[in-house]
Structures
1.
Amino acid sequence: MHYQLSDDDDEEKCMQGAEVKALFSVTGMTCSACAASVEKAVKHLPGIKDAVVDALNHRAQVVFCPAFVNEETIRETIEDAGFDARLISEETINERSTQVCRISIQGLSCISCSMTLEYYLSSVHGVTKALVSLSNEQIEVHFDPRLISTVDQILEAVRDVGFEGTLITYGGATRSVQLQLEGVLENENSTKIIENSLRSLPGVREVNFEPGRRKMSVTYEPDLKGPRDFIKTVESNGLKASIFSEKRGSETHREDEIKQYYRSFIWSLVFTIPVFLSSMVFMYIPSINRGMEIKVVNMVTIGAILRWILCTPVQFVIGRRFYTGAHKALRRGSANMDVLIALGTNAAYFYSVYSVLRAAFSPRFESTDFFETSAMLVSFILLGKYLEVLAKGKTCEAIEKLMDLSPERATLLTVDTEGNVSNEEEIDSRLIQKNDVVKVVPGTKVPCDGVVVWGQSHVNESMVTGESRPVGKRKGDLVIGGTMNTNGVLHVKATRVGSESALSQIVRLVESAQMAKAPVQKFADRISMFFVPLVVFLSISTWFAWFCAGKLNGYPKSWIPPPMDGFELALQFGISVMVIACPCALGLATPTAVMVSTGVGASQGVLIKGGHALETTHKVNCIVFDKTGTLTIGRPVVVATKLLKDNMSLHEFTSLVAAAEVNSEHPLGKAVVEYAKMCRENDDETGPTWPEARDFESITGHGVKAVVRNREVLVGNKSLMLNHNVVIRTCAEEIMTEIEGLAQTGILVSIDREIYGILAVSDPLKPGAREAVSILRSMKIKCIIVTGDNKGTAKAIAKEVGIDSVVAEAKPEHKAQKVKELQANGNIVAMVGDGINDSPALVAADVGVAIGAGTDIAIEAADIVLMKSNLEDVITAIDLSRKTFFRIRLNYIWALGFNVIGIPLAAGAIFPATGFRLPPWVAGGAMAASSVSVVCSSLLLKNYKRPKVLDSLQVRGKIIG
């Protein structure tokens, strides 16, 4: 395999997904205001790149990313805005030119290995990016499929570097599924028949079979075929097939690794304990010691031969992994922890062999061996590796909990053309395909993302979004896979399954975040480049210094413990220095903490996209808030009602107004109807019905007119009233002035040409917004509002929320410019917005925070995505970031401090003054313990609790949902 660096600097741009341009016919638009409302509604959808509406030709052209939104959703959004829409045509603008695969790496033991592997894979022609995660022993490779036709080429490159790799996931414009085959394969032709049968199916791109693992990988287009079709095809050829569980495969690898280290450690103990007893204990038991000291050949004793025999399998059989690792590292021109272990144990072992052989050929030379040093070093290091693998496995628990949210089984419904259910069948949830209809009964989990086509219920989405209250669902509402259905039966049509689901996207986001290195990790990377060579130099220097001091009588002979000589004492000091130094602890300090914290954040509804975002967030001292949808709930709500007539109750008043507005598509009209529903709920009525409205008329820009219960009802602005000769009395004028002064919209209600009442409508603050801003200010973080709204509204909201600095009437590019001005003044700026309209500012900010909920999150636009639509999680994100980097600093202090203190101690720095000497086997144990302690320190982040002040935060007011 020949490697060459890519010369194309623009290949990073290939990471963007495919864009689709769709053209819609839109009827009902009468002016530019209509076009603007359609454009605004469409642009609020996630994944929309651009939207242009032509009111004259009644058309709308939308450019979007199909991974986040589809044509049907856009069409429904246009219709929700009050217009009829029909898809005319669509075309793909650019095909995805980069694909991503994730590979599990066996034998990835230290930071030096990971850096070497990352460097070599990045240099493979066609690879645009390679990210190694040492903590979970995986690598994520981004590559151009036009230059690398199959993933096997990447796996071959991994093997060429000296590692074994196993493909975990592979995805691009198509999907891939792995099938586990069961049954008897008569011959190779049987496999070829199955492969050809699968290839003949529409939508199947590629089929690969692994005979050793009886696993078949199928790459396909999910819109055409799915896993059920492939299993039926395999079974029609006489075999059984099931979905190969990716989770099961990764768990099996980790369990195998844990068992392997455990077995190696136990076997090493079987040999090491007798060696230790023979060397350290039996000398104090006279009866046993006499037998051990019996001479066999010249001066060679039975004890020395036994120790040699017992130590040899530990050194070369059980410790073979260290030789293999060291060989691979040295072959590629680098050095790692295995090199230090191999050098240290070899020095002890081969000097001992030399000593025994010399005693065998000399009648006077008494041998002094260090076989116990070699054996105990290997045993302690294996114990440390075993504990480290156990601890690292716990850092992945957050991902495993997310993956466990998906139910194992689902009830598939067969629906006829009229929508009637003709059959029910229980299937593996992984076999659900697009457009399937599944039944979800109370107490079970929703098996996939979809839309409710029948039934109503409440769904607990806390496990995905963090929202604690169950959310009502009825026909037409979206549901998220992995959430819990509480009290009603739902029929759900699958829209996104497998790797397309919101849960899978969250899992991938967290996995990618755990892959991404924090800038502080560069510190450990720089140290690791020269750490091992420096340790080898210090070890040799230590031996040489003590050896020369002994030869030149630089210290008293009484310092030398019997039965050693000066050379052997110097050798022990040198070996201790070599095995106590630990680059692994430095390499694990950051990635383990980032892995745990991103997992903890995801469990609390805060998705942090990698170490860079996590590191920058803890430095934030200035936050820029968008207003609409960020500080406010983002839609009009009736906040007050003023009745001007005593002869009408609120119940009757709202019934008449709702009856007039129920046919209106205007957002203000919908707000009035929702308010009337809430009033009915307060009266303990369910399923409100409104009186019949006759002669309904929507008057554009003014309001509505209808006859309800034989009474003429007008609902609208002053112009509507004046045009219908309705007298607006002074008290009504004063109330309208007061409402407008509060940046609210006043709606006048006339019944039979008399003003009966006024409704105040506004986009109110989100619950807890004022308290969240107050907490941020107490954390010494400056808060600013930058919004496109008018100055009056912006200042009113700022005053209500407690923010002094306001920038109003700002276009998207002006928001980004304001962010850059704040950065120029030395601030670390976070921008909090909806992740779509505010994308220029989100990109310009040091940290972009997108507020969304469930499937509507704008993942690509921001560094942090808040699954819940509240501002409390901004505080949680900052607090989690601060605690994570406090933990990372502690990890570095411990890892560096251990080496800074341990190496001089092992070199005998205090031996002349205290007589204390660190034996090599104790030094090896300390080295193993240092790595374990760093991982355990990071695991303490699993106990993270959000600030207590948030638990006592009082939510004011009631928001209509």
2.
Amino acid sequence: MPLNDDQNSDSESSRLSESTASSSDSEYSRQSFNSDSSSKPSSPASSPPKTITFDELMAAAKNLTDLTLAHEIAVNANFCIKHEDFPQNSFAGTVKQIVHKAFWDHLESELNEDPPEYEHAIKLFEEIKEILLSFLTPGANRIQNQICEVLDTDLIRQQAEHNAVDIHGLANYIINTMGKLCAPIRDNDIKQLKATDNIVELLRQIFHVLDLMKVDMANYTIQNLRPYLQRNLVDYERTKFQEILEETPSALDLTTEWIKESIEDELSSISDESSSPPGADSSAKPIISPTLVLNNGYLKLLQWDYHKTIPETLITDEVRLQELREKLNLLKIIACVCLITNNMVGAAIVDVPDFADQLKRISVPLLEDMNKKTFDLKEALNAIGVQVCSTVNSSLTERGLPTLTEEMQSNLIGQIAHIVEENNPVRSLIDKRIQFFLRSLLALPSFQKGMPSMPGGLSVIQTEMELVGSQYASIVNFNKQVYGPFYANILRKLLFPQAPMGKAETEGPTS
């Protein structure tokens, strides 16, 4: 495949962006920049500068936590709470083990006294009662009354004064109640509790299983809450972010800077690509597409340095965007390897079925850690080059054809190794084509389910690119739904600072 196709690809990209922007921005401008809606959830209001108190800061932090958690529950079907403990060999794990052992040893010594001392045990039963009651659903009055009656700490104290506490009977009642309330996955834990005779060890294990049941209950709640959040997430997130903005007016500073940089990039691109004809007004400001500005900003997130803070409106998807960036980096290298190999030895492998898949199978294991700081990309590319030469030679030998000469092998390995260079022409070409595909994807109407055509040179990674593109478009389209009104206010101020004030200015546009 000729490497000079990038010029054609770039011109196609510009035409696509311009045509899409011109068709969509008139509608965007009408809806977003001239709206007179006053609905609070969809109308972010600007706030004057003010001093932020500690309580306001904590309230904003809580809103951000709620927003992030709700977003994660709704968009991540695998999100769940996990029961985690400190590693045993860690300092925290050692301290916890020592403290817990001291507590349970003290409890055992109290129960072994004559007469037994029950005060600490009674406090444990009181805590167990509260945990069991927290598992009950509204309306479970009968079992609630039973738990309160059997684990009545005042009654247990009276029995203790007369040395008449049936501590094993209380423990058995607790275990049976846990068996009624637990998830099926805990049935085996309940059986093990019933087989434990030592009362101190039994109480310790009861608390362990109760901790697991708390996690089960939290995940059950998340599972039931997810459909509701998915139906109402746009309004919920927008309302929560508006509350954050009211508490901390600087909560859009990074987002504003992100959009401003995208505008500057677009202005620079326009000035590079066009020159004023003779007699034209050179002082006239170029017309910039708000949609194009936003889409270019979203594209920059796939090349973002995630050591820097991401724009505030994208914090909830930061991890997902970073994962997509890492996947694209891997796919870019694989596409480069395949393109170089095809250009150099394409005639020798043209009849080999699934040769591109063989190259992927060679490359992926050697590149899987490429996003780690300690990864040596140049060394990995050298190893890939050697294996590619070996694979090509094996294929040629099987078909009775002469193998690659030493010079051809050295050249192939060298060209693959040079992919490590940021300005490598093959790498730049593949990167432009990936950007063109993603830009085309963002230009599609949100209701359109299909994918744009795959640019040349990317067919080897088409399946993976379409999956990444689908995930990326989903993040972007949802983000636009939630934060579109906030972006509209920022874009209006940056692109149209001379615009007359109106209701849309003071109350905000609709999405």
3.
Amino acid sequence: MACVTVIPVLLILSFFQPKTLFSTILASGQQDIKDALGLHNVLQMTKKDSRVILSWNNNLTEEETKKYTVKYILIYKFFNTTKERKERLQEKEKIIHLKLHSGFNAKVKTQLFAKETEDIIKESDWTEFTYKAPPVYIQNLSCIIYNISFFNCTWHIKAEAPEDIQIFTSYRHVGEVFACQQYIKNAWKKNIGCYMKKMNFQPSRKINLNITVRNLRNSSRGLSYYKAFTPQTIEKLNPPINVSVSLENRNIKIDWKPPPTIGSARKKCFLYQVKIADQKIVNVTAENYKYPFHKPAKKCAVQVRVKKEVCIANKIWSEWSEPVFIHDEKTVDILLLSLTLFCPLIFLGGLLIYACRRYRCLEVITTPVPHPSDNIKTWLADETHHEQHMSMQMEMHSEFTLGRPEEKDENIQQQKCLKEFVLEDLQRCYNFFISMQVYLSMRWTIF
């Protein structure tokens, strides 16, 4: 009976003291209370460039605002997306960046919490809001910074876009506005990208990209879309430099250096990946990596790539570095090579020493070359004397025959024959002498 009588009493008191109702129900363990007093929000929207400033007011009294902690739950979702964003705020305002979205759905709820216990006192219903932006004719926008000072953006034009539109871009950075230097065109001469070089980026200042879609048939104001980038988040680094491979304590040690960057170059900012032939790619935070040297392939390629991960979130990996091979002439295991060559050399040296002792090769090599004997010297002197004597006889015979004119022709013929005979003998002697000298010289050179 006690329970039956308590409920009517509470209902009667609720007409005179509304706040007693909430405190009594809260004491019974019930939370997430709907506003019985008609707590509600009024949404307002302000459009500025590609931003929508969403604000709201409620009918809370000043006393309630001071007594309780007021928080707001905002949930919004862009058109043509499935991801729902939820935020818990204490301000009555939220800036939503449209980027390349054509609108969004949003809803707001107000909640009151007890300051001492953080228990919920009451909350309002959802207040919903829908914003439709002008049509967006581009999609898949992507921008990267590479080689420190090069900036490149690309996009696709939607199929439903009018035929007479053209896309123009510019960007604002550190208070300056830069027009596109060179457009990338498709087969229909539509701008689908922008290429810029020799730019100077401040890593902590955002790049505000402005994309304008204009109708070439009329001079009406075109549609503008805006998107902001932080330079370091879209930087594509060059591959790591000075990649080298060495052998250390039966491990393959790979060393490298980080590439230049527009932002922080501290070691902890970089995340590396090492790829060794067909092995699994390994994430490394240091500037070196050791790989156990068991039985690798005859020619094993090593490559490294890098991105920024710790200091700032960047999803763009660099290209892989040029492959460095482990088993080429620069990375051969010197100790193993030395042992492989040293053992055969020792064996061949011992075999050569044994053969020399067995067949007395040293005695043959060290035997002195004999000098020409006295008989050879005497024979050479006699040959020279004989040649001189024959020459004198030929001259005397020639003078005798010249004195008789009637035998002139016959003597001349005999003289020619005699000279040819003597010259042949002299030539044979000379050739023999030269052959002996060459033989002796070669023997002396060999031994």
4.
Amino acid sequence: MTNKESGSNEPKISGKVKSKTFQITSLLSKMAVVYTLLVLFLAVFVAGFILLVMGAINFDFSNSEIPPGVNQPVKLRIIHIILISRAVVGKILENIGICSQVSFVRYMQGRKTLGVDPKLFIKDLWFEKVPVRIYQPKVPSASQRRGVMFFHGGGWVFGSLETHEKLCRSIARESESVVVSVGYRLAPEHKYPAAYEDCLNATIHFMKNVEHYGVNPARMIICGDSAGGNLAAAVSQTLAGRSDLPKLRAQILIYPALQALDFNLPSYQQNRGVPLLYRERAAFYMLQYLNGNASNLEEVLEGSHIPIDIKLNYRKWVSPDNIPEKFKVRGYKPHVLLDCTTEVYETVKRFCEPNLCPLLAEDALIQQLPETFMLTCEYDVLRDDGLLYKKRLEDNGVRVTWYHLEDGFHGIINSFNNEWLSFSSGKRGLDNIMNFLKSL
């Protein structure tokens, strides 16, 4: 190769090197930008997460009142902080137009799915257009089994087949019963009486076809917790007057919500700030179920939503006077009766319907109800709903097995097997429910 040829190639080689160098430099610059953005995003995410948790902690300590007698209070605070954080994220997503807060919370509640249970056959079906999940023990039985209709809690707004999956599996396994969990329609999309009608229709369908599932029609039990306890009580009352169906063997009511006339009963005052159900939220959920919104919440809380003459008419059943004195010792002050306007009453007058508030059913109906298991918790705003209904049942000759968790709070039963966030008191309450079921 001549010097002339060699010299002519040098600029070409040099240009290629410079071009390659520029490309590498440009790529590295882009990677640095991407890396910087990722670091910034991660930093913002971590900072946002820390702020979220700190805000939730601050809200919990500012608004919650956890009495010394509550079972494992630190765990309760942790669960409450997780729930607050979830609600805040849902609100943020709602504000930026991604999804509603309710939809997000429901999604987060139902995203955990359990695997195959070696002791149960589990199947999803539809009863009268209502989704249900059936749990049947695999172990052979010499006789027909009990049948348990289960209605989940969640304030008629939340809850699903998934949220109470562990509980239903445990009931089916431990009591060797056939359990039918009902996925009823939720508020605010579906207002009262949608949830009640779904639970009633699913129950009637099952009662008419119990033989297909190896269930003794004389051993049918209805069970529910919180809002589900409300639905269980309402369905039991409806079925009590049905002559075309077998009589229910029992009803199991786990801290049920049973009235909306008085949110100033002793337990509502004493436990107004105790997680997992504040007094304000109890009224909020009831209004969501009734009207699909929380308008007139303040009137409901202060008691100016029902005319005085109607309150006095129901005072024989809904009154602090019917609650044992030992439950009034802790921070209770008698509440002055307030009247209401016609406009407000028109929006909530269905609170006087027993299908919505079972505590208001007539004595003639209460007398026909089956044997009852009632579970109440000391640190629960709904405690007195259960105590008042217990008294009504006993006064009308209905046999009641009552178990009171002295250190319990609302929602504790569904946390009986929540790994490191389990509560010994919840397990104790569930054991008593199982003992009652096995006795039937």
